[in-house]
Design brief:
Protein name: G protein-coupled receptor 183
Strand order of the largest sheet: 1-2
Structural class: mainly alpha
Largest sheet: 2 strands, antiparallel
Number of domains: 1
Membrane topology: Multi-pass membrane protein
CATH class: Mainly Alpha
CATH architecture: Up-down Bundle
Pfam family, one: 7tm_1
Shape: globular
Number of strands: 2
Organism: Equus caballus
GO molecular function, one term: oxysterol binding
């Protein structure tokens, strides 16, 4: 369907334009989605954390980055019950602006801490496979600790302003929380969000693709030089892990950031406010793509499953011990 951006019939931000007209459907589908994310995400990440704690003496840089990824996901799941209630009530936040800000803080910390630690994992694997002589085990683990601290400080610094600015807004007999229309009138918002998309998505994606493409080249080269390596299936498992990580990253994070980028470009290109139908379509796309992005919380334990040796065996052993009389 063609969209005419020059149509003079425009609904400015302050006019009678209900951006939550889809609340009847959303109040069923979104709570259902987040209930699934809550159960799978919490159980999966807790299992991963328990296995890590039980084997903390054998920790390396890979498990350290994975641990931080798991912790950020567990923190995220603790905020989901309030979001589930919010969506079930038809985008109506009943528990105050302070908790709305904290929920927003936890949401963005999980999102971009997850992106950063997935990027760290790709860089770590790049050095381990392509340049193994440059990093011995002790140097890699000490370096990884410093990187993890830096990532958390960086993410907190980026998201702490959310505690300063109001994140809730009264409109149409409901109080919305952490919704784009609540702060869309900020003049510099398009540039801020475009910059955030570049630093939080485009740059990490480029790094991940470069690192894993170099790893694949190294694995293929090794297989040619040593046929026994190919027969052992080690390379195939490594390639499957790489494909899984890239697919998860692209499927979970790309739709949301593409939606943000294209909408911000429209706002910069067209000086007049967008039509109500366009703004409503963008709001629906945000709700859908955010759900998809948050599903990453359920997939991270599987990344740990593929990346860390013996994880499946350790989980099964632990579960058998729990059910045994």
């Amino acid at each position: 369907m063609d969209i005419n951006f020059t149509t003079p019939t425009i609904a400015p931000p302050g006019s009678n334009c209900d951006l939550y007209a889809h609340h009847g459907t959303a109040r069923i589908l979104m709570p259902l989605h987040y209930c699934i994310v809550f159960v799978i995400g919490l159980v999966g990440n807790l299992l991963a954390l328990i296995v890590i704690v039980q084997n903390r003496k054998k920790i390396n840089s890979t498990t350290l980055y994975s641990t931080n990824l798991v912790i950020s996901d567990i923190l995220f799941t603790t905020a989901l019950p309030t979001r589930i209630a919010y969506y079930a009530l038809g985008f109506d936040w009943k528990i105050g602006d302070a908790l709305c800000r904290i929920t927003a803080l936890v949401f963005y910390i999980n999102t971009y801490a997850g992106v950063n630690f997935m990027t760290c994992l790709s860089i770590d694997r790049f050095f381990a496979v392509v340049h193994p002589l440059r990093y011995n085990k002790m140097k890699r683990i000490e370096h990884a600790k410093g990187v993890c601290i830096f990532v958390w400080i960086l993410v907190f610094a980026q998201t702490l302003p959310l505690l300063i600015n109001p994140m809730s807004k009264e409109e149409n007999e409901r109080t919305t929380c952490m919704e784009y229309p609540n702060f869309e009138e900020t003049k510099s918002l398009p540039w801020i969000l475009l910059g955030a998309c570049f630093l939080g998505y485009v740059l990490p994606l480029v790094i991940i693709l470069i690192c894993y493409s170099q790893i694949c080249c190294k694995l293929f080269k090794t297989a040619k030089q040593n046929p026994l390596t190919e027969k052992s299936g080690v390379n195939k498992k490594a390639l499957n892990t790489i494909i899984f990580i890239i697919v998860v990253f692209v499927l979970c994070f790309t739709p949301y950031h593409v939606a943000i980028i294209q909408h911000m470009i429209k706002k910069l290109h067209f000086s007049d406010p967008l039509e109500c139908s366009q703004r409503h379509s963008f709001q629906i796309s945000l709700h859908f793509t955010v759900c998809l992005m948050n599903f990453n919380c359920c997939m991270d334990p599987f990344i740990y499953f593929f990346a860390c040796k013996g994880y499946k065996r350790k989980v099964m052993k632990m579960l058998k011990r729990q059910v045994s009389p």
